[in-house]
Design goal:
single chain; 48% helix; alpha/beta
């Protein structure tokens, strides 16, 4: 059973545990103090590589660490979960997300890269045992990063709602996540405490939703946009979502949560939000990229989408997303 806390008092659990702290360089800016000695591991990239994870496993074993603490964004939390998975060690994981978007602290899977390919490792034991949602850690995030992570959470919630694997429980999480994002967006972008707190909770609910359902086509189509144009994941996913929704049609109950009467209004509301946030298609995109993008989409990742998308449809959607002539 996962436990969630809302302040750093939960760190007291770590006393005498000799934890492995998995974090990136941003940890040094947060002013977080653990109440015990710890072993630090920061030897991983923003897209954790299999080799990085194995190096972390070696550090865990050599130091006899009895706990893993992940402090950071999705990369840090995924790296921590990967270390637990490949170490085959029955060690608890504490996750402290420092962005409000990935939801990794609420899922039982982790993204690992091997030989340039992205793999999803899934195991019920990877669901972090303890989560700390502390809004102070969002204070230092640049505004653009805050926008992108917020949009990632919003996309997760919408995609989970229309997923083939949606359940009453996952839909309730999705609905609550969307409500919190829309209600607290302005306060969050102003870096106010209440906005930061509620956006962390929104992202956590979105994570709980995709932990049940996983994501769908907009996420599957976003990955190559990120690697090809250097767009943050939330930016890329958000560009894809309204185009995919307009193609699929329907899901008017989700439209209502966004303030629209139907999918047409809702996708337009979403696109206006992107314009207002200055989340725009990459300027260096061209029609020459369309085949590369289309071929990059993993068809297996599309199996969860409520309607099937063939290659011609995917190429047409990328044409609309990038605003280029096909």
């Amino acid at each position: 059973m996962q436990e969630t806390f809302y302040d750093f008092a939960a760190f007291e659990i770590l006393k005498s545990k000799n934890p492995l702290l998995v974090c990136d360089s941003a940890f040094d800016l947060l002013g977080i103090a653990l109440p015990c000695k710890y072993v630090r591991f920061s030897g991983f990239s923003s897209n954790p590589q299999y080799e990085d994870i194995i190096a972390g496993v070696d550090v865990l074993r050599k130091n006899g660490c009895g706990f893993i603490v992940a402090i950071g964004g999705g990369s840090s939390i995924d790296a921590a979960k990967g270390i637990k998975y490949y170490s085959h060690a029955d060690v608890p994981v504490m996750a402290v997300p420092t962005t409000s978007g990935t939801g990794s602290e609420a899922t039982h899977f982790a993204a690992i890269y091997k030989n340039g390919e992205k793999y999803s490792v899934a195991d019920e034991r990877l669901l972090p045992d303890i989560v700390i949602l502390q809004p102070d850690v969002l204070k230092t995030l640049p505004v653009y990063q805050k926008k992108c992570t917020m949009l990632d959470a919003l996309c997760q919630a919408i995609e989970s709602w229309w997923s083939k694997q949606a359940t009453p429980e996952s839909i309730a999480y999705s609905q609550r996540a969307i409500e919190l994002v829309l209600e607290h967006m302005h306060s969050y972008l102003k870096n106010e405490d209440n906005g930061n707190k509620n956006m962390l909770i929104a992202a956590h609910f979105a994570g709980k939703a995709i932990n049940i359902t996983t994501t769908t086509a907009p996420h599957a189509m976003s990955y190559k946009l990120t690697s090809l144009y250097g767009l943050p994941h939330g930016h890329a996913a958000a560009l894809c979502l309204p185009k995919v929704w307009r193609h699929m049609k329907g899901f008017d109950e989700i439209a209502g949560a966004l303030g629209g009467q139907n999918y047409i209004e809702a996708s337009s509301i979403f696109e206006k939000l992107l314009v207002d946030l200055d989340i725009l298609p990459p300027k260096n995109a061209s029609a020459a990229d369309l085949d590369v993008l289309t071929d990059s989409v993993n068809q297996q990742r599309l199996q969860n989408n409520p309607t099937m998308l063939n290659k011609d449809t995917i190429k047409s959607l990328y044409t609309q997303i990038l605003e280029v002539d096909g």
